Amino acid sequence: MNAGMLRHAVDDNSQLQSLQCWRHTARYHLMNDPTGEMGRSHPALARSLPDSFPDPLIVNLYAHPAVTPLAELPALQPPHPPNVALLASLIQQLLGWDSKKVVGAFHTAVWPVVVLHELLEDLTNVSPESDEVRYMSKSSVDSLTTVGCRLTSPSAA
Predict the structure, then answer these.
(1) Residue 81 clears pLDDT 80, i.e. is over it
(2) Residue, of 2 and 105, whose pLDDT is higher
(3) Is the dihedral of CA 35, 41, 47, 52 positive or negative?
(4) Is-contact 95 131, C-beta < 8 A?
(5) Can you give the C-alpha Rg of the chain in angstroms?
(6) Which of 26, 30, 38, 101 can pair with 97 through a Cys bridge, CB separation 3.0 to 4.6 Å?
(7) Helices (H), the chain
(8) 91/58 Cα distance (integer angstroms)
(9) Taking the complete model, does pTM exceed 0.70, yes or no?
(10) pLDDT at residue number 29
(11) What is the DSSP letter of 62?
């Protein structure tokens, strides 16, 4: 249901007529797939669509969702780096990996993220108003890449 149809569907004066029009359009699209978006027609589904669909109460709930005001939402805490030692121990216990396999996995998947997180947090804490994070020099990107991070500099994009 597009925005225009939704506006008409929640208007008490034209709600039943709008929903009937939407239902007719939905049946047509299910039966014929004129836009090719579905990949095929769905005639059985089109025939099974009841005349009571969609329920006006559900349409009203969709058009006017109950949301929590922003002021009432709890504040999110910034992410913390993982406890690498605890994570390694847990992986060994649950997956039965030996130390060599854990170190290999951490080398490619965990340590680059931890290093990058620490670097970005340091840059933010040292100069929060700066755009250093956005516009790093090529040498900075190259040095991070040698540590194992994969970054795309703005000039390379």
Answers:
(1) no
(2) 105
(3) negative
(4) no
(5) 27
(6) 101
(7) 3-10, 15-32, 43-48, 56-63, 84-95, 99-105, 111-126, 138-147
(8) 46
(9) no
(10) 93
(11) H
Q: Are 131 and 143 in contact (CB under 8 A)?
A: no
The candidate with the shortest Cα–Cα distance to 4, out of 18, 20, 24, is 18
Domain extent listing, the chain: 3-70, 84-147
**156 pLDDT above the threshold of 50:** no
Write the single-letter amino acid at 79.
Answer: P
Task: Answer for the pair 59, 19: CB distance below 8 angstroms, yes or no.
Answer: yes
Residue whose token pair is 């009841």: 50
CA torsion angle for 85, 117, 150, 143 (degrees, to 10)? -100
Q: Can you read off the two tokens belonging to residue 127?
A: 């100069």
Structure tokens at 64: 């006017």
Share of the chain above pLDDT 90, in %: 32
Distance separating alpha carbons of residues 150 and 157, to the nearest angstrom: 13
